[in-house]
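User: Here's a protein and a ligand (protoporphyrin IX containing FE). What would the complex look like?
Assistant: Let me lay out the input and then the predicted complex.
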Amino acid sequence: MAHFEKATSVHDWLNQRLAIDTVRRVMATEYWIPKNINFLWAMGMVLAVTFGLLLVSGIFLLMYYQPNVATAFDSVNYTIMREVEFGWLWRHVHGVAASVVFLIIYIHMFTGIYYGSYKKGREMIWISGMLLFVAFSAEAFSGYMLPWGQMSYWAGMVITNLFAGGSLHADGLVEWIRGDYVPAQAFLTRFFMLHVLLIPLAILGLIGLHFAALRIPHVNNQDGEEIDFDAEAKKYLAGDKAGSKVIRFANDFMAKDMMVVAFYLFFFFYLVFFHYDFAMDPVNFDPADGLKTPAHIYPEWYFLWSYEILRPFPTDPGLIAFAFAQVIFFLLPFLDRSPNAVPANRRGLFKIWFWVMLVDMIVLTAMGKLPPEGIFSTIGLYAAITFIALWVVLPFITKLERKL
Ligand code: HEM
């Protein structure tokens, strides 16, 4: 048993038992952040805030939502939207946040790619980030099932069909996932459980892992400068705050982050009050009907790029290309063979790789929304091939890169 003194205050009492001063020092006041970073480094905090909005609005929706195929649609579109006071507001906050969170995730990912923030020492930040991406994708998909509209039903049908593995015909696996031959009550109940319990828990754990993975390597910076954090921290603590290249995470860096978060919230609530419809598919305002297939079935905008990698190929190669697109970003730290953790504009061929990848994914997203006919399907095919080719050439072009 450790030795405990008579406490002089509540703070002291807690400190003797939980070492709160040490935790605060390690995680906040002496957690050093480089000065040379820009607003893009606030996206992590913007994501954390958006996740908070999703949790709070989700809890309010849960008070009236009914996970039953006979009543789910009305519980959302009638009870929550019309009967419950401000139910519409929570639904719009939830819907807009679910869409905008992906926009910010993509900005955050591409910032990491541009500045090489996944390289030596930072691999776990990247991998935990990609696990978050997968968890958010599963969370969005399971949530989309809940209003039990036409798109919920048919997107559920199409996505679960993928698990049959094309000519492998693993129909038993598809039935096992659905709990039935087609999406029905068992399907809705299990996706409800995943959406409100299991996946949010996994996301909370993964956010903890992502933050922990940042603590030792620290965040990267916009000049690709290798900072000696111990030496710079000593300078700061000795009083040379202007000469030091770092600042404290709390409260200095947090204050800058909150500034960006405040601007973001203006934009967010502007969407909630004036443009919430962009986050809601009109087809999903028709109740689910297993006998009426919608003319075009497409996912939400944030899944369109990977959907378009599946679509232009015949079934089996399409499934392989789709599986490739789902896992390949995980491998980025190992496929990029260059040691240079500097901005892409100083990295020769990688600079071209970065911009072609970004434009290609935008093209795939646009084509994924359009019907797969004529010129659109040709463009989609070339864009899908370009996506795969870019990943194949990545190890070679980065191996050629001169060490800076
Ligand atoms: C959705 C939940 C996520 C949250 C809450 C989150 C949060 C954060 C925070 C607070 C930071 C530190 C500050 C900053 O650079 O913004 C960070 C850094 C980072 N995150 Fe995430 N992140 C999430 C998802 C992702 C995803 C999907 C990826 C991509 C795979 C990713 C990759 C990274 C990388 C590489 C860094 C290091 C940046 C650097 O060293 O400069 N994160 N994240």
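Summary: The radius of gyration is 24 Å.
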